[in-house]
Amino acid sequence: MRDPGTPGVSVVICAYTEDRWEDVLAAVASVRAQSRPALETLLVVDHNRVLLDRLDKEYKETDDVRVLANAGPRGLSAGRNTGIAASRGGIVAFLDDDAVAERDWLKHFAEAYDDPRVMAVGGRTEPVWASGRRPDWFPEEFDWVVGCTYRGLPRGRVRVRNVLGGNASFRREAFDAAGGFATGIGRDGDRLPLGGEETELCIRLSRARPDAVLLIDDRAVIHHRVPEVREHFRYFRTRTYAEGLSKALVARSVGAEKGLESERRYTTRVLPAGVVRGLRDALLARPGGAARAGAIVAGVLTAAGGYLVGSVRAGRGGATFSVVGLGEGGGRD
After folding, report:
1. CA dihedral for 163, 15, 189, 301, sign (positive or negative)
2. What is the spatial distance between Cα 121 and Cα 114, in angstroms, rounded to a whole number?
3. Distance between CA 223 and CA 133 in Å, rounded?
């Protein structure tokens, strides 16, 4: 049972392809099995009529699941904004459509909001590799490439600059203060895998509400499926390049000093330590050590290349994004 003194939680899951049908059903089932029940689950479908109709039929007899069409332009940011605007909870949580949440996921999120200063809470995302195990060459420092928590993030419940969007929650007032997710930064289906929209939002929120507290609680765990195609170096290279493009847009929006604040520590401390660890493993004849060290170097170089290209495009006006205000949706709880 939900404590009547705490805000209700609306969970938004954005979907775009029938290829993830079973994953979407599993994601919804994990929300419905929470120890702290969600007020509602909103399934937002990104411009796919067949999937929309199929999900609508699947959940038409289910009171706690609503199926919506993305009311904005194609892409994850607009889908999330659609869910926010339609939600009724005082807290809005986001779960990837190819992830499942552990039973106490929402419980740990909700507990943090007992402090009225807390405007956002993220959790820990564990990879579920399609091959059954992490590729030997894939460095944990780059697990963000596959949408997961990476080595170098702080442990426990700690303050952070930004949460990670696939496993995150926000107090509704955060959107009232800062607006929604910026379109033109995040993912758009199967196109170039951009990101960074949650970083831009969190920095914008901190500026609109200087007293805001943003947290990560690593007890709020989800398990994120990593398809086979993302276990290959080709995807790794594409995703790191796209991240560089995204960071250029974020820096343009909020300034390089704040937009790259966490990235400076990551590139000057976390990644060098990862290279040393990989080389040490190579000397000890452990599988993949040299390859992991090489992947870290390659990831830095491709991300830097993407950042340079993105900065030039932004300077020429070739890359645009927009931030929208959000309506209050169907009500508050």
Report:
1. positive
2. 12
3. 14
pLDDT for residue 115 is more than 90: yes
Furthest CA-CA distance within the chain: 60
Asked whether the beta carbons of 39 and 8 are under 8 A apart, the reply is: yes
Task: State the CB neighbour count (10 A cutoff) for residue 284.
Answer: 8
**53 Cα distance to chain centroid:** 26
- pLDDT tier at 322, thresholds 50, 70, 90: low
75 DSSP β-pair partners: none
Average pLDDT, the chain: 90
Identity at 137, one-letter amino acid code: W
Rounded distance between C-alpha atoms, residue 111 and residue 75, angstroms: 31
Q: Which of 230, 239, 225, 229 lies closest to 98, judged by CA?
A: 225
pTM above 0.85, yes or no: yes
> By three-state DSSP, how is residue 42 classified?
strand
pLDDT tens figures, 123-173: 999 999 999 999 999 999 999 999 999 999 889 999 999 998 899 999 999
In percent, the amount of the chain with pLDDT more than 70 equals 87
Which segments within the chain are labelled E, that is strand? 9-15, 40-45, 65-69, 91-95, 99-101, 118-129, 157-159, 167-171, 213-226
> Cβ atoms within 10 A of the Cβ of 199, count?
25
For residue 289, the one-letter residue type is G
Structure tokens, 241 = 């390049």
Write out the two tokens for 119.
């405007």
